[in-house]
Design a protein that fits this description.
Number of domains: 1
Largest sheet: 6 strands, antiparallel
CATH superfamily: Jelly Rolls
CATH topology: Jelly Rolls
Structural class: mainly beta
Radius of gyration: 16 Å
Order of helices and strands: HEEEEEEEEEEEEHH
Strand content: 35-45%
Strand order of the largest sheet: 1-2-5-12-7-10
Length: 167
């Protein structure tokens, strides 16, 4: 039996397990920096101008709710549509469809604004995407609260948090 398409990408792109779920590999980190005094006060130090990763979710995986201090743009590459759920600071839930079926409301590129909690779940066997972060990603800017912490903060979003929150 041959390898699945998801396994093909995991192997050929040398993807590793990601803390929020799924598989990833950083493929770009700019050599240039934005100095701290030119950044918003939410950043604790200088940041690379931009970073990007490959990110793959299999049907049994999900990317748990988390947030970062930068905008994150998702780019669709292969597989099935990916649903990305974001919760704004005003507690509004938005469902984004990342994919190529424009007639079905899907878009090939979606940006999640800095500071919004977001999670993702594939609609089929797998989804391969790219994520570009600017200012560049730094784990200092990454926050993944527990399911209970999210439920306390967003009590009106309990159904999606139960489904895609970190245990």
């Amino acid at each position: 039996m041959g390898m699945s398409r998801a396994q093909y990408f995991i192997e050929k792109l040398e993807l590793q397990k990601h803390p929020e779920g799924g598989w990833f590999k950083e493929v770009y980190r700019s050599d240039e920096f934005i100095e701290q005094d030119a950044l918003n006060a939410r950043f604790s130090g200088r940041r690379n101008i931009s970073t990007s990763i490959y990110f793959l979710l299999e049907v049994s995986d999900f990317s748990a709710f988390h947030r970062i201090k930068s905008d994150e743009t998702w780019h669709f590459y292969d597989g099935g549509m990916l649903e990305i759920y974001s919760i704004s600071t005003s507690e509004k839930l938005k469902t984004h469809k990342l994919g190529l079926n424009i007639e079905n409301g899907e878009l090939p590129q979606i940006t999640i604004p800095a500071g919004e909690y977001f999670a993702a779940k594939p609609s089929s066997e797998f989804t391969l995407v790219g994520c570009t972060v600017a200012p560049g990603f730094d784990f200092e800017d990454f926050e993944m609260p527990s399911k209970q912490e999210l439920l306390n903060q967003f009590p009106n979003q309990n159904e999606i948090i139960e489904l895609l929150g970190k245990v």
